[in-house]
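[Discussion] Sanity-checking designs against the backbone

I'm trying to build intuition for which residues belong where. Below is a structure token string of 315 positions. I'd appreciate it if someone posts a full sequence so I can compare it with mine line by line.
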């Protein structure tokens, strides 16, 4: 049993991580400022003695006592991270400095939720960890991409300079229950649009690709990474290599939901990556992990979640 801090614990991935840590018998301190997260995501944990919730913004120092830190706090969808881009960079950079300072004082192991966005709009396909990426430093996505890149730099410098025990995971597009219905990410958008019978918004011509991982698979890999031997820092890709176009995703969602939504085309946002697929050979080797949930099965679970959520909100 360990005392574990999860920053961003009221968010989509963070709340699933809190669930799994509690199931494993750990004590969890969930820290969140509720920018994109919600108490609803962790309401079922609130009565448990092993679970504690703290409203706090990690751009400010945090003095608590824990043995392990999962640093997930950061808005993740383009709509949300571009809403207040300066705060997004502060969350990644000042937030990382504070959490690393905390880890240093406590001599605690710390894991950073980094992202495939560090590869930018890649000219290497699929993306392996050795690829340095192609990121625009001054575009609309830069607050997120460069913030996350700088956070990785800080993690590796604290490791080299202060011998901190770090782990860095690069997460590729992940979906599942508890995604924010209005956060603008493609999976939640398409499902909510299909359930409401609204038009499905394809950005650009829909031929750009992504590879989507179901949340349970992702959390399993993250937990395994945290338990790897000291000295193995990553960065390590985690994601599902099953790649498809946004048009194919729209068609699959429409088929699973039914209904009569039409596809409509909207301008492609700037710097939108053309293609993305994780090379997960390192994760397979080091974590003995491959994703096990097929996209159709994961989408069915996610559709069921949004169906219930929309019905509750309508009631
Ligand atoms: P999310 O928006 O649901 O969760 C982020 C959480 O962080 C929210 O609860 C939010 O309120 C909280 N937060 C934001 N700024 C904060 C601050 N300054 N202080 C305290 N809390 C703050 O997003 P998510 O999908 O759960 O993403 C979690 C992490 O995983 C993020 O760091 C994200 O960059 C990373 N990630 C996610 C994906 C994905 O596909 N979901 C892909 C790559 C990386
Ligand atoms: N910090 C924190 N909690 C702690 C210890 C440090 O939030 O328990 C913050 C503190 O605000 C500091 C930052 O982490 O600015 C970096 O800490 P570090 O010890 O690396 O640097 P220093 O304190 O020397 O600036
Ligand atoms: N996208 C889309 N329609 C939407 C939302 C997104 O076609 O309603 C596209 C978006 O342009 C991108 C892909 O879907 O090419 C994935 O977008 P998301 O925001 O989910 O993730 P990211 O771009 O950060 O990988």
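Best answer:
Here's mine. Compare freely.
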């Amino acid at each position: 049993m360990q005392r574990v801090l999860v920053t961003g614990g009221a968010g989509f991935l963070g709340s699933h991580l809190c669930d799994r840590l509690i199931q494993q018998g750990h004590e969890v301190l969930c820290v969140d400022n509720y920018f994109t997260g919600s108490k609803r995501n962790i309401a079922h944990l609130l009565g448990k003695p092993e679970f504690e919730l703290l409203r706090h913004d990690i751009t400010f120092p945090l003095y608590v006592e824990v043995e392990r830190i999962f640093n997930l706090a950061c808005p993740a969808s383009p709509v949300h991270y571009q809403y207040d881009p300066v705060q997004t960079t502060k969350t990644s950079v000042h937030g990382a400095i504070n959490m690393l300072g905390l880890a240093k004082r406590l001599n605690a192991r710390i894991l950073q939720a980094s992202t495939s966005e560090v590869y930018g709009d890649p000219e290497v396909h699929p993306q392996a960890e050795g690829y340095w990426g192609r990121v625009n430093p001054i575009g609309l996505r830069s607050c997120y991409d460069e913030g996350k890149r700088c956070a990785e730099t800080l993690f590796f410098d604290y490791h080299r300079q202060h011998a901190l025990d770090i782990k860095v995971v690069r997460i590729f597009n992940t979906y599942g229950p508890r995604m924010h219905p209005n956060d603008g990410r493609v999976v939640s958008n398409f499902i909510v649009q299909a359930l409401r019978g609204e038009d499905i918004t394809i950005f650009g011509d829909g031929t750009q690709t992504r590879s989507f991982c179901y949340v349970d698979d992702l959390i399993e890999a993250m937990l395994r990474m945290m338990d790897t031997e000291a000295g193995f820092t990553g960065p390590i890709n985690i994601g599902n290599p099953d790649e498809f176009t946004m048009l194919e995703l729209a068609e699959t969602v429409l088929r699973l939901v039914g209904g009569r939504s039409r596809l409509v085309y909207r301008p492609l946002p700037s710097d939108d990556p053309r293609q993305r697929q994780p090379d997960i050979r390192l994760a397979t080797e080091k974590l003995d992990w491959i994703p096990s949930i097929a996209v159709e099965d994961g989408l069915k679970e996610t559709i069921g979640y949004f169906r219930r959520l929309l019905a509750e909100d309508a009631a």
